[in-house]
Amino acid sequence: MTSTATAEDLGTRIEEALRRRFSERSAAAEHYGTEFVALWQAAAEHALGGKLIRPRLLIDLLRSLTPAGLTIAEVERAIDVAVHVELLHFAFLLHDDVIDGDLIRRRRPNLIGSLVERRSTEPAEPALHWARSSAILMGDLLLASAVLGFARADVSSDARTRLLALLEQTIFETVAGEHTDIGLSDGIIAPDLRTILSTSAYKTATYSFVLPLRAAAVLAGSSPAAEEQLTAIGRHLGLAYQLQDDLLSVFGDPEAHGKDAFSDLREGKETAIIAYARMTGHWPSIELRFGSMDLSVADASDIRDRLRECGAERFVRSLVQEQLGAVSTILGEAESAGTISPAAGRTILGLTSRIEGRTV
Amino acid sequence: MTSTATAEDLGTRIEEALRRRFSERSAAAEHYGTEFVALWQAAAEHALGGKLIRPRLLIDLLRSLTPAGLTIAEVERAIDVAVHVELLHFAFLLHDDVIDGDLIRRRRPNLIGSLVERRSTEPAEPALHWARSSAILMGDLLLASAVLGFARADVSSDARTRLLALLEQTIFETVAGEHTDIGLSDGIIAPDLRTILSTSAYKTATYSFVLPLRAAAVLAGSSPAAEEQLTAIGRHLGLAYQLQDDLLSVFGDPEAHGKDAFSDLREGKETAIIAYARMTGHWPSIELRFGSMDLSVADASDIRDRLRECGAERFVRSLVQEQLGAVSTILGEAESAGTISPAAGRTILGLTSRIEGRTV
């Protein structure tokens, strides 16, 4: 029996599996007091309702790598692995927000912000400490859950070994990227273009793109050669995605992308755009106001214009094209070699065009 | 072939396995830049050189649960699991230190303190942010490693399932205990005696005592009944240990136990001693100075004397005896029922008397 679920069905099913996971944990939390239950419930609210990009990518690719169709049991197994990829993502977000001191994500309070809001009648300092500590602990619980989920995947022993190696490498590399990213923002690591590009790839591409693609390959029983090609594809896609994100924050429409206008410029975020601008004669005039939290819209618009004039925008757009071009090249080789099916190639190209035309 | 390693050998072998693990990771870190390598090396320095109480407990109990002796392969397997118990411990310590804002542990700089020291010529705020963020990330890496280590244990599929369930419960309960403990110190959860006792059991007993004892039982192939009895024994032992720790901090000799004299009183730590004192008429005179960071030695000595007079010391010492008595009772029942061998009983009683006579 094969499954013929549509894309909407799939989203619903992933969401349901995720919701079930949080309900189970909230129920188990009851033994440990109301505050621990409240933390689980708050975490569930923030983890649910997302776009589920990573789990969807995993299952979309798995479907297209399996032309004969997936059995219902195979879909369930894949949803289970995909849910743990999403839990890993949420664990990373929580610790990122603690490290960055953020209380807001996409204009809404994040978990920390909402825990602080609940204690708005109490002294601010312990309320903030409680909220941040809670986010560290919830991140720990979800990180451990993600690894346990992979460890318990209902697959062959060989596939589980491959999944665990993949997850280990993913966590190591993501954390390495995050560590360098903090070093860049704390002024401890020099912001050269090469470091910034590799940091983006490690911090974002590895777990958001390489992990779902390779996990799909393992579940589909693809060859190590295919897995290797998907690793390279995931890196290029992820880097293109991150560079587009950087471009949107400076040159995009805040009404559309939903982030604070120019937040990267206010925070002094070391992006590829900035790394390029540093190497040009325009830098002294940009540097003066770059990274000041009270940057006016007029000043930010002026910086944006200078980043355009100095060629940084054009350069980063060309990098995006380069990454997406590399994806096409690898896909072409993989199709000729028969390592990745044309259907899987189309799934990946669909993603490529979504990244290319991204405005949100 | 059976192994006849002595206690010193065992400590050396655990230490070596732990060192090997850190060396491998430091080598893998090289690909990600010098700062990431430096973080791994600093973490290794802090993780090595400890007393290895938890891994030793696991292996001591496993040996006494296996009268026929362990093969060399079985010892290696047990050391591998024990090393991951130690990594979990270190991961918890790191996140604890971040949450508590501590830079010192046992009068020496902890990982955060030593990372700050390396940047002593730089502005303090980014150096501290960098150090704390690094500790969050290293905690994540070691937590994930601990779970991966259990997932990869070279044991039967049934034993691995039991080990993973044990680890999941351990992490969940430890984090629940830590969460409540933070709520107590932030004034969000009421410090009644019952909450404080269960928090101590969850936060310390579960991973420091229950986990090594039960893991040994699983590796020895003991019955679920034995595992259940060891769970109860671990809780009582761990609670006794924590209560002794609280007693030492207030009534012990700081020259011997190595912590700052009266640090619990300065930090306003909600212990069973304090919870008892709150219920007595002496509390108003204690409360005035309890939890003030500039508490003088004279004032602290005065509080100590009042905690003695109000009966808090006697009460908590009786709680310790109660916990240790409960261990003897369970052991007696287990020996009669044949679920835990006399040799294993002796190992546990040895631990009981070490906790009873503890001065450091």
TrEMBL record, chains A, B:
Keyword ATP-binding: no
SUPFAM superfamilies: Terpenoid synthases
Source taxon at top rank: Bacteria
Keywords: Magnesium, Metal-binding, Transferase
Keyword match Zinc: no
Cofactor(s), names only, from the UniProt record: Mg(2+)
Family per record: Belongs to the FPP/GGPP synthase family.
PANTHER family in the cross-refs: GERANYLGERANYL PYROPHOSPHATE SYNTHASE, SHORT CHAIN ISOPRENYL DIPHOSPHATE SYNTHASE
Protein name: Polyprenyl synthetase family protein
Organism: Microbacterium luteolum (Aureobacterium luteolum)
Lineage: Bacteria, Bacillati, Actinomycetota, Actinomycetes, Micrococcales
